[in-house]
Amino acid sequence: MAAFAPPTDGVADVYPRNAIARLAVAAALACGALTLAQPASAAGPFERGPNPTDSLLEASRGPFSTSNQSVSSLVTGFGGGRVYYPNDTSQGTFGAIAISPGYTASWSSLSWLGPRIASHGFVVIGIETNSRYDQPASRGRQLLAALDWLVEDSPTAVRSRIDPSRLAMAGHSMGGGGSLEAADDRPSLQAAVPLAPWNLTKNWSGVRVPTMIIGGENDSVASVTTHSQPFYESIPASSEKAYLELNGASHFFPQTTNTTMAKSMVAWLKRFVDDDLRYDPFLCPAPRGTAIEEYRDTCPHS
Fold first, then answer.
1. Are 196 and 215 in contact, with CB atoms under 8 Å apart?
2. For 112-158, what is each residue's pLDDT tens digit?
3. Is 285 helix (H, G, I), strand (E, B) or coil?
4. Spatial CA neighbour of 10 closest among 255, 257, 248
5. Digit-coded pLDDT (tens) for 195-205
6. CA 192/CA 209 separation, integer angstroms
7. For the chain, percent helix, then strand, then coil, each to nearest 5?
């Protein structure tokens, strides 16, 4: 793929568990009359945290306190970064998400996302890329390398918290384009969330990973009409997918706290990384509000 440097506008650009979860829900409903006096139990094996509410998902932090530590640039396959994780070890292991910044940007441009997502029960690694100028395909490989590092080589305090079968990724701009590359390359991933994604490749018909694409209505770098929307439409209807377009948002909406983006992103990750059916109502039917210009999806989720 030919290298391309988009304008920066003076800103750095930054085994089938669904079936298990549904059976568990059905069983809980079937015997509910007999267990009213018993403590509430998890409807699925990967539920983490309390029942979700709008206020919980819109808060700056979720129910888990978190810690974080830096990742050395001497690691193999990506440029280091920072990892965030829940302090709680009583509820079992967590899914893990790798996130890439965009062209010319560092992780600091997206760093608000690290503790926010981790506080909902995920291990999150925000990566630095090998070069600020890496193209989407390279960023996709680096995201996969970061997930491999988390699972295989990260410190015990991090690695022991991760379920290696529940992995996902996200990224902004070329990092978002990289998350599509990674989803195409590794279909075993549980979720992908490209944010204002940029990529010269427009056809992602090979993607089978549940993917939520979030675009900005007024993006002048990766216009939704030539990037986010055709990316979404090219993913097969048989795949779980959603397209959220933020009203009036520019290319740089992920670089500052964005409640609508974070709420939908966390709900998508909880639903597909944790198979947590409690988050379906926040995705299906389609969310509405003044901050949302458009929403497309494949509801109902199977």
1. yes
2. 999 999 999 999 999 999 999 999 999 999 999 999 999 999 999 99
3. coil
4. 255
5. 999 999 999 99
6. 7
7. 30, 20, 50
Single-letter residue type at 255: Q
156 Cβ contact list (under 8 Å, min separation 6): none
- Band of the pLDDT at 94, cuts 50, 70, 90? very high
Q: CB burial class (10 A; 0-12, 13-18, 19+) of residue 184?
A: buried
* pLDDT at site 301: 79
Residues contacting residue 274 through CB under 8 Å, at least 6 positions apart = 44, 46, 47, 48, 95, 121, 166
In single-letter form, the type of residue at position 213 comes to I
Contacts of 186 by beta carbon, 8 Å cutoff, 6+ apart: 144, 209
Task: Report helix, strand or coil for 77.
Answer: coil
Query: What number of other Cβ atoms are within 10 A of residue 295's Cβ?
Result: 17
Give yes or no for a contact between 266 and 57, defined as CB atoms under 8 angstroms apart: yes
- Per-residue pLDDT band for 300 (boundaries 50, 70, 90) equals confident
What is the C-alpha separation between 6 and 174, in angstroms, rounded? 9
Residue type, 296: R
Query: What is the reported pLDDT for 49?
Result: 96
Q: Measured between alpha carbons, how far is 148 from 98 in angstroms, rounded to an integer?
A: 10
The pTM score is: 0.87
Distance between CA 292 and CA 237 in Å, rounded?
22
Question: Which residue shows structure tokens 């059905």?
Answer: 26
**Beta pairing, strands 81-86 & 66-71:** antiparallel
Q: Which residues are catalytic?
A: 173, 219, 251
Residue 181 tokens read as: 């590359």
Work out the average pLDDT over 275-281: 97
- Bridge partners of 193? 170
